[in-house]
Design brief:
By secondary structure, the protein is an alpha+beta fold. Helices cover 44% and strands 20% of the residues.
Length: 256
């Protein structure tokens, strides 16, 4: 492994302090939080300010992120291909699990399939890339609806006692859906149990962008026979790890 440069590591440690903090920091804060020697911290802070990676408020002697980081972020965003990232994430998770993996966005009361990698068993699923399905009957849709506002969810279903069904297991009422979404938020993962396709189970998790907003979801779809060979928690952890990897590519950083 190549030797890492201590000065660069210390500089990055300082910048990364601002990932988890909303308020500006003083130089003593930086010394305390990073363990960087006082003189070194002042030199690094001055350098970052001179290059616009940090801004200094002279009145309060505090520092906050500078405009140069925004420019870098915009440059990264301009080059970032969400479709390519979704396909990469789907391929990786499918390779790890041996199962069908999908990535979808929400469009109103539907989910839009952005990427899909089939399992070796090739499940017969109603979904395909570019297709839409009712969000409330899919794990992907539940993972996305759970993080929409309650008002927005209510407005999606003008007939709350007649939600469209795809199988006998589909949720049919808004009340039932709201209860299910509470469970998704509490656990951080959504499940579908033969609700869009007979004999198919699914675990799905939300994908977040750099601001922390839920912008997509990723799922693992499994035949009933395979699903019951392992505990439910196995599928939950598997898909949450896949979501975490894709979220990191979108710029999301888990709070320390």
């Amino acid at each position: 492994m190549p030797r890492l440069t201590p000065a660069v590591l210390r500089t990055l440690d300082i910048l990364e302090l601002f990932l988890d903090l909303d308020s500006p920091l003083t130089a003593p804060d930086v010394v305390r939080l990073t363990g960087v020697p006082r003189t070194t911290a002042h030199e690094l802070l001055a350098t970052l300010v001179s290059r616009d990676y940090l801004q200094k408020d002279e009145a309060s002697n505090t520092f906050r992120l500078g405009v140069r980081l925004l420019q870098l972020g915009n440059a990264y965003s301009a080059r970032f291909d969400m479709l390519a990232a979704a396909n990469d994430a789907a391929r990786e998770l499918s390779s790890l699990s041996g199962e069908t993996v999908s990535v979808a966005l929400r469009e109103g009361a539907d989910v839009f399939y952005l990427a899909k990698v089939e399992s070796r068993d090739k499940l017969r699923l109603p979904s395909s890339i570019g297709q839409r399905l009712p969000a409330h009957v899919t794990g992907l849709g539940k993972a996305l609806l759970a993080y929409a506002s309650p008002t927005a969810v209510r407005e999606l279903y003008p007939h709350p006692d007649e939600l469209p069904a795809m199988t006998g297991h589909s949720i049919r009422t808004l009340t039932g859906l709201q209860e299910e979404l509470e469970r998704v938020r509490a656990r951080g993962v959504a499940f579908e149990r033969e609700e869009s396709t007979p004999d198919v189970y699914c675990a799905a998790a939300p994908v977040r962008d750099g601001s922390g907003a839920v912008v997509a979801a990723i799922s693992v779809s499994v035949s009933a026979a395979h699903w019951h060979q392992r505990p439910e928690e196995y599928w939950a952890e598997l898909v949450q790890q896949g979501a975490a990897r894709l979220s990191a590519q979108l710029g999301f950083a888990e709070p320390h």
